[in-house]
Amino acid sequence: MPLVVVPVRYPLSRHSQATLAEAVRIAEERDADLTVLHVDLYQEGREVTRTELKRAVEAEFGRIDRARYVIRRGFLVEETILDEVAAENADVVVIGSKQVSRWRRTFSRFLDDPDIDRFLREKLDCDVVTVSA
C-alpha cells in the first residue's frame, strides 16, 4: 500500500493547512495511506497528543479515510522527520516551503549551497513534494 507522509505544525498554521490539503489530494489520487506527523521538540517542553492533532486536522478537513496521526519527539524537527519517513518507507513526503527553507538553513551550516530537494530524494528514496502556502 502506498504511503504519503506530511509533517505539520500544531496548532495548524496556514502553511500546514496548505501542505496537508496537498497531501490529502495526493493520497486520494494514489489511493495511499496518509501519515500526519507532528514533531514535539524536547526543548520546547510541550507535548501534543495524537487526539489533539487528529481533532485539529478533522476540524479543517473532516474525517480522512486511511489517515494515521503520529507524534514524535526530538531535538531537531528535520532529523525526526527524516527518521519517520525512512522508518515508514514512505512513497511520498509532502513538505511546506517553510520546512524546506529551515532545512536549507540547517544544512548550509555543513554544506555549500545545499540542494534540499535533491538531498531529500537521495536520502529518502521517495517522491518529495514541496508546497507553497
UniProtKB/TrEMBL annotation:
Q: Identify the residues that the record assigns to the UspA domain, covering every copy.
A: 5-131
The record's InterPro entries line, in alphabetical order, gives: Rossmann-like_a/b/a_fold, UspA
Descriptive protein name:
Universal stress protein
Signal peptide interval: none
Q: Which organism is it from?
A: Haloplanus rubicundus
